[in-house]
């Protein structure tokens, strides 16, 4: 694989390739359902990293006030099984962005086969764990592709 460790930014958002190892599977060689959550988290974290929004920087207040992202809600559909040694792609895109929350759509695919689809709602919280608004630089960096080309951000 010639991609960087953190995947790559795409027209829609971010793509990260992952290999399924023995540790990711159950006794039958099928990906254990909870491992998909790990793959999805890696996709979200690397998307942020490539957008210049590292978790350490958020926590340190380098992008404004000290803040963090906390998973608030997730809907997930397990459609097809992944198997040992598969190369999967985790796709992450911002669907909606408000002042204090992010809604992302994520998919895990094997080639053209959709394995997992997830809708993720993320809350923006202060160092004290209270909801807070995102700094403008973070809003701009995470804006959905169609927002960057002219639509406005949603409010929340």
From TrEMBL:
<protein>
    <submittedName>
        <fullName>Acyl-CoA thioester hydrolase</fullName>
        <ecNumber>3.1.2.-</ecNumber>
    </submittedName>
</protein>
<comment type="similarity">
    <text>Belongs to the 4-hydroxybenzoyl-CoA thioesterase family.</text>
</comment>
<keyword id="KW-0378">Hydrolase</keyword>
<dbReference type="Pfam" id="PF03061">
    <property type="entry name" value="4HBT"/>
</dbReference>
<dbReference type="GO" id="GO:0047617">
    <property type="term" value="F:fatty acyl-CoA hydrolase activity"/>
</dbReference>
<dbReference type="InterPro" id="IPR006684">
    <property type="entry name" value="YbgC/YbaW"/>
</dbReference>
<dbReference type="InterPro" id="IPR006683">
    <property type="entry name" value="Thioestr_dom"/>
</dbReference>
<dbReference type="InterPro" id="IPR008272">
    <property type="entry name" value="HB-CoA_thioesterase_AS"/>
</dbReference>
<dbReference type="InterPro" id="IPR050563">
    <property type="entry name" value="4-hydroxybenzoyl-CoA_TE"/>
</dbReference>
<dbReference type="InterPro" id="IPR029069">
    <property type="entry name" value="HotDog_dom_sf"/>
</dbReference>
<feature type="domain" description="Thioesterase">
    <location>
        <begin position="29"/>
        <end position="116"/>
    </location>
</feature>
């Amino acid at each position: 694989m010639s991609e960087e460790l953190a995947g790559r930014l795409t027209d829609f958002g971010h793509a990260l390739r992952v290999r399924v190892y023995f540790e990711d599977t159950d006794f039958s060689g099928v990906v254990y359902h909870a491992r998909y959550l790990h793959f999805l988290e890696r996709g979200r974290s690397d998307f942020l990293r490539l957008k210049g929004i590292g978790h350490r920087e958020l926590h340190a207040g380098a992008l404004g006030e000290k803040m963090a992202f906390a998973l608030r809600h997730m809907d997930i559909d397990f459609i097809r099984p992944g198997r040992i040694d598969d190369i999967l792609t985790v796709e992450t895109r911002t669907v909606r962005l408000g002042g204090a929350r992010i809604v992302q759509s994520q998919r895990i695919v094997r080639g053209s086969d959709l394995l997992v689809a997830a809708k993720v709602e993320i809350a923006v919280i202060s160092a004290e764990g209270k909801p807070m608004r995102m700094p403008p630089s973070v809003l701009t960096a995470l804006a959905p592709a169609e927002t960057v080309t002219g639509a406005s951000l949603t409010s929340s």
